[in-house]
Design brief:
Layout: H1 9-18, E1 25-29, H2 32-41, E2 44-48, H3 59-70, E3 75-77, H4 83-89, E4 99-101, H5 109-120
Parallel strand pairs: 1-2, 1-4, 2-3
């Protein structure tokens, strides 16, 4: 049985199934536990928060963003279009081999394919 986040077990299991090392993977998450799990697994951690630059964000939104920031991800994006530029800037990642990991439980699989399309185009 795989333990829940912030345990890195699920991420490491996915890396093993993909036959990729954790250092070739990015993990995109929208919560503090996502980022903590990614960091514990040794993956490049990206926080996803669509209201990051939204002027209509309320106090609750700002608290959620603060919680995400407190986990100290490698980067925080508000839109998938920001992903490719971040990955180009960070020389630790080999864009030819990077694998995007995203827990698709609450989000459409289209989100995952959107990430992969941005990375590999």
């Amino acid at each position: 049985m795989i333990r829940q986040k912030p345990s890195p077990a699920g991420i490491l299991y996915a890396c093993k199934r993909l036959k990729e090392g954790h250092d070739n993977c990015i993990y995109i998450g929208d919560s503090k536990s996502d980022i903590l799990a990614a960091k514990a697994a040794g993956c490049y951690a990206i926080g996803f928060y669509p209201k990051r630059n939204d002027p209509t964000a309320d106090e609750r939104d700002k608290l959620k963003l603060g919680e995400l920031e407190s986990a100290q991800p490698n980067a925080i994006i508000g839109d998938l279009s920001e992903l490719k530029e971040i990955l180009k800037r960070d020389t630790r990642l080999d864009l030819r081999k990077v694998i995007a990991l995203y827990q698709a439980g609450r989000t459409s699989i289209g989100f995952l394919f959107g990430i992969l399309k941005i990375i590999y185009n």
